[in-house]
Write a structure and sequence with these properties.
By secondary structure, this protein is an alpha/beta fold. Strand 11, helix 10 and strand 12 form a beta-alpha-beta unit. The protein is flat and about 75 Å long. About 3% of the residues have low confidence. The chain binds guanosine-5'-triphosphate and magnesium ion. The site of magnesium ion has 6 residues, from helix 8.
Length: 461
């Protein structure tokens, strides 16, 4: 990646017919001259940094007006990339803005790669790596809580935590290294104090690693499959949870044939809810294909809601389905149609235990909505996703692996301390831990790693 190039991309979403404004962003040494060469501003508008100009994007060869637009010039270093940036705010849609981008490319810019603007912002010291990743996480956030978490990262919450830990390790490193070089000239090392500090930093890292799971839940969400025999009310439950008539419901067993996905947010956790075909033996070819998909969804889900009909009771077929749920998958057995088996006066289920002794984890009525809240609470709890309100910073997968590696290195350093090995045995592992933390913030990170991180970003960011 070479920042002597000027790069350009459409920075806004490309959905046909959606969005009234589309932005072409240009960054690099030629950004200003390219913008000036394509833009005609009427009247006495002043061309200066951080001022918006009104005018037209004009094809310099044919003289044709391509779009009516606003131009925003941001001379470096007062820009996102710290290079000179020009943004052309065009009309939304697909055609005109593509032509504007093509004119910009013809004038000497090259197409930006995914995340390349952010990568330049990082390389020019505008953002550390945790903040750059938070930008991407903010864009892809699927719930308000996930967005808040990303904003906390963007404000530097994670960078400050990691940097503080790294500095504590650097202090201990300095103590140790001084002893390696000048053992005789210094007071003896307070070994237990150093070990105590390493253990304390290790414990904080372990805590961050443990909390990463919660952040992952808020960011990535959960895939939850609703499975069960035909006609038990799976599609009705999907409709109840997504609060709209998403799936077709009939009293005919075998109504749902294909997988149906619904995106929703429960207590801040984004969920992809999957309605599946009722699983049974059948000769119907289409239904059989649907059932295969249901089995695949069951096997791949983070959590399974196994639904059965309380009025019909727990059957051997229900039991067989329960045995299909993989061992590590969160499972909730849900008795549905409680309205058919409760006393009409108090509307409470008669008995949580089924006649043959199979306990339902939750009892609901997908038709009346009774039990919905208990179901949501039990599902989130079973997935370890309840009580996420207190999460302040959360490592992503890359950061978590590095923090875990740093904690492991510190544990090895402490072992060396325990065995009273010479100082230089400690420093190898301590240095490794410092290196890992530096990779989180980007202070010590290879170009290959950077390319991998930024390649996950979207084009134009
Ligand atoms: N009384 C009562 N009826 C329900 C309840 N939930 C669903 N039903 C009815 O049960 C029938 C089947 O509901 P669906 O939601 O289509 O069941 P399904 O599990 O998706 O069925 P398939 O797609 O065929 O596997 C419909 O007539 C629903 O109205 C409930 O809680 N109480
Ligand atoms: Mg259905």
């Amino acid at each position: 990646m070479n920042s002597s190039h000027t790069i350009a991309a459409i920075a806004t979403a490309l959905a046909p017919g959606q969005g009234s404004v589309a932005i072409v962003r240009i960054s690099g040494p030629k950004a200003e001259s390219i913008g000036a060469g394509l833009f005609v501003a009427p009247g006495h508008q002043v061309w200066e940094s951080h001022r918006v100009l009104y005018g037209h994007v004009v094809d310099p060869v044919s003289g044709e007006r391509v779009d009516e637009a606003l131009l925003l010039l941001m001379r470096g270093p007062r820009s996102f990339t710290r290079e000179t940036v020009v943004e052309l705010h065009c009309h939304g849609g697909l055609v005109a803005v593509q032509r504007v981008l093509e004119l910009v490319l013809a004038a000497g810019a090259r197409r930006a790669q995914a995340g390349e603007f952010s990568q330049r912002a990082f390389l020019n010291g505008r953002l550390d790596l945790t903040r750059a990743e938070a930008v991407s996480e903010l864009i892809t956030a699927r719930s308000r809580r996930a967005a808040q978490l990303a904003m906390a990262g963007l404000d530097g919450g994670l960078q400050r935590r990691i940097t503080a830990l790294r500095e504590r390790l650097l202090d201990q490193m300095a103590e140790l290294e001084a002893r390696v070089d000048f053992e005789e000239d210094l007071p003896p090392l307070d070994g237990p104090a150093v070990a105590g500090e390493l253990a304390a930093v290790g414990a904080e890292l372990a805590q961050l690693v443990a909390e990463a799971r919660q952040g992952e839940l808020l960011r990535e969400g959960l895939r939850v499959a609703i499975v069960g025999r035909p006609n038990v009310g799976k599609s009705s439950l999907l409709n109840l949870l997504s609060q709209r008539e998403r799936a077709i419901v009939t009293d005919l067993p075998g109504t749902t044939r294909d997988l149906l996905e619904s995106e929703l947010v429960l207590d801040g956790v984004p969920l992809t809810l999957l309605d599946t075909a009722g699983i049974r033996e059948t000769g119907d070819q289409v239904e059989r294909l649907g059932i295969e998909r249901a089995r695949a969804a069951l096997a791949a889900a983070d959590a399974v809601l196994l639904l059965f009909d309380l009025a019909a009771g727990w059957s051997p077929e229900d039991q067989a389905l329960r045995e299909l749920v993989p061992a590590g998958t969160a499972l909730l057995v849900v008795g549905n149609k409680a309205d058919l088996v409760v006393a009409p006066v108090d509307r409470e289920p008669v008995d949580r235990e089924q006649p043959d002794g199979v306990p339902a984890d939750v009892v609901i009525s997908a038709v009346s909505g009774a039990g919905r809240e208990a179901l949501v609470a039990a599902l989130l709890q079973r997935c370890g996703a309840s009580d996420l309100q207190g999460v302040q910073v959360a490592l992503n997968g890359r950061q978590r692996d590095l923090a875990a590696a740093a904690a492991a290195s510190l544990a090895r350093a402490l072992e060396a301390a325990d065995q009273q090995l010479p100082w230089d045995f400690w420093t190898i592992d301590l240095r490794a831990a410092i290196q890992r933390l530096g990779e989180i913030t980007g202070e010590e990170v290879s170009e290959a790693v950077l390319d991998r991180v930024f390649a996950r970003f979207c084009i134009g960011k």
